[in-house]
């Protein structure tokens, strides 16, 4: 699968009339009848759909998010855009096409790939772990393998001159941290349900630079290649690279000066 397909579609620039176009369909505000809604987040000068659905469901959807995931609901969307379509069958077809094209992170049904890293960094991707490119049935990996991967990686990371000081300054309970990270990888590979968090949020406020991410990825690639079987290592490295790109897109939506040098 091409990289653009694996990571989802890019965001779109807002149109000058206050509306936006997704997949050739015009969305405006306010709603004018039965149709579809698109909640969007702005990253730089581009808009990314975070949730697309039936206009009649938008109020209930937002209420459910505020109740079930209040931290996520705060600042969820920069705008809600609506498209009027009276024909229910046409709405279903358009909804299916748009969700499959843009892979909004809060849509689960109809997704074809991960959300674009720019938006996945801000809104946790509910369907990210459900795609074949993320976890293949041919991959052989166990909880023991993941435990070894996590422990070896963090032993090396703590000794590293670039990222070691970051971890030592912000992690006080290492056993809890190691358990949390293993739970994340267990969910990614083994479909377990122990990890319930959003990995991006804890990295806010750490003053991370691109050099930190570059070193983290390089060290993780070395460790995964040494500790996992080849197919599992490739899948873990792909996930780590995706997270690095997503986190940096969220932390530096307009780019970072170090990347411009």
TrEMBL record:
Name recorded for this polypeptide = Truncated hemoglobin YjbI
Residue intervals passing through the bilayer = none
Q: Name one GO molecular function term.
A: heme binding
SUPFAM superfamilies xref list: Globin-like
Q: Per its UniProt record, what InterPro entries does this chain match?
A: Globin-like_sf (IPR009050), Globin/Proto (IPR012292)
Q: What is the lineage of its organism?
A: Bacteria, Pseudomonadati, Pseudomonadota, Alphaproteobacteria, Hyphomicrobiales
């Amino acid at each position: 699968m091409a990289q653009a397909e694996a990571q989802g579609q890019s965001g779109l620039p807002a149109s000058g009339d206050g509306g936006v176009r997704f997949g050739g369909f015009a969305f405006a505000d306010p709603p004018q009848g039965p149709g579809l809604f698109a909640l969007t987040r702005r990253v730089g000068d581009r808009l990314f759909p975070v949730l697309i659905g039936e206009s009649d469901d938008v109020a209930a959807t937002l209420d459910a998010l505020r109740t079930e995931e209040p931290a996520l609901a705060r600042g969820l969307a920069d705008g809600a855009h609506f498209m009027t379509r009276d024909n229910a069958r046409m709405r279903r077809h358009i909804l299916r096409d748009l969700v499959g094209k843009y892979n909004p992170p809060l849509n689960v049904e109809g997704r074809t790939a991960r959300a674009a890293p720019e938006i996945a960094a801000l809104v946790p991707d509910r369907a990210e772990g459900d795609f074949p490119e993320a976890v293949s049935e041919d991959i052989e990996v166990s909880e023991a393998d993941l435990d070894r991967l996590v422990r070896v990686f963090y032993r090396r990371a703590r000794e590293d001159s670039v990222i070691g000081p970051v971890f030592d300054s912000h992690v006080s309970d290492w056993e809890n941290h190691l358990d949390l990270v293993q739970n994340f990888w267990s969910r990614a590979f083994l479909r377990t349900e122990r990890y319930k968090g959003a990995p991006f949020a804890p990295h806010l406020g750490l003053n991370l630079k691109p050099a930190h991410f570059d070193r983290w990825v390089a060290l993780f690639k070395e460790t995964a290649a040494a500790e996992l079987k080849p197919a599992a290592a490739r899948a873990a490295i792909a996930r780590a690279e995706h997270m690095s790109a997503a986190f940096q897109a969220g932390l530096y939506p307009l780019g970072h000066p170090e990347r411009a040098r």
